[in-house]
Amino acid sequence: ADLSLSDWLRQCVDGADAVKTGQRRQRRRLRTLTADPALLRQLAAIGSNVNQIARVLNTVGLTPGDHAQLLAELAAIQRELHHLAELPRYDPDDQGQGDEPCT
């Protein structure tokens, strides 16, 4: 008996309880997002700077006051990043026509 792979797997997993419905599920296609290469370079540079700062902070001793100040600064940066994430997204092919964000 020539079984399809899906029928064979059903038999292996569920045994005789498997029922072929004859219906195929529609798969959702994931949308590929594009980003501005200049923006990606800037983000990579920011990430590199953050790593350098972290390396230096790990080598020097922080006082409790320094530690509190650093946490406050990091919280401010995090708030800014969350704000940026909430900005509307636009299609890179949009030539500035219309104010509709991409969905």
Describe this structure in words.
- With 103 residues, the protein is mostly helical.
- It has a domain at 63-87.
- 53% of the residues lie in helices and 0% in strands.
- The protein has helices at residues 5-14, 37-59, 64-85.
- The two termini are 47 Å apart.
Compose a concise summary of this entry.
The chain has 103 residues and is mainly alpha-helical.
List keywords for this structure.
103 residues, mainly alpha, 0% strand, disordered C terminus
Order of helices and strands: HHH
Q: Mean of residue pLDDT?
A: 75
Q: Approximately how much helix is present in the residues?
A: 40-55%
Biggest sheet statistics: none
Write the layout of secondary structure elements.
Layout: H1 5-14, H2 37-59, H3 64-85
